[in-house]
Write a structure and sequence with these properties.
The chain has about 140 residues and is α/β, with parallel strands linked by helices. It has a single domain, classed as 6-pyruvoyl tetrahydropterin synthase/QueD (Tetrahydropterin Synthase, Chain A, 2-Layer Sandwich), CATH 3.30.479. The chain has 3 helices and 6 strands; from the N terminus they run E-E-H-E-H-E-H-E-E. The chain binds the ligand Nc1nc2c(c(=O)[nH]1)N=C([C@H](O)[C@H](O)COP(=O)(O)OP(=O)(O)OP(=O)(O)O)CN2. Pfam families: PTPS.
Length: about 140
């Protein structure tokens, strides 16, 4: 099996609804996302001969996903009162609502699924919330 890895980073704010501690407050991170893909074979001809996929394509596909979240406030659906949400929208803030608790674990699955939807055979997605703290998601091929 061949493996290929790339990474991107983005800056965004989040908070953890229902968390007893400092993470209940809106705070920011420079999130680092590391994706590893796998393939039993390599391209046989053309520009990408000998590659799983061109790094530049893999990098761009991941960047498209991280750019979507960059400089946003990421919030779990239903975690703010409707009037608060409306007020933030009226202020013109970039808000991204997600249907999971925005933890490092939640984001690792999010990026795993986003890159899988793009056709990659993803081995793992690792998301760093801080340089020392990360979570990863993968699915073993036996289900
Ligand atoms: N398993 C997880 N635990 C925590 C997560 C998470 O995503 N997965 N997230 C948080 C908070 O979002 C928080 O930002 C991180 O908390 P903490 O580790 O305390 O942050 P720091 O490393 O910056 O800690 P300092 O003590 O301020 O250096 C909490 N837990």
């Amino acid at each position: 099996m061949y493996y290929l890895e790339t990474e991107q980073s983005f800056d965004s704010a989040h908070f953890l609804k229902g968390y007893e501690g400092k993470c209940k407050n809106i705070h920011g991170h420079r999130w680092r996302v590391v994706i590893e893909i796998q393939s039993p074979s390599l391209q046989k001809e053309g520009q990408t001969q000998g590659m799983i996929v061109d790094f530049s394509r893999l990098k761009e596909d991941l960047k498209e996903e991280t750019d979507y979240l960059d400089h946003s406030l990421i919030l779990e659906k239903g975690s703010l009162r409707p009037e608060t949400l409306l007020a933030l929208k009226e202020e013109g803030f970039l808000l991204v609502e997600v249907n999971f608790r925005p933890t490092a674990e939640g984001f690792s699955r999010y990026f795993y699924e986003k890159m899988s939807e793009k056709g990659y055979n993803v081995k793992s997605a690792r998301v760093y919330e801080t340089p020392a703290n990360s979570a990863s998601y993968g699915e073993d091929s036996h289900g």
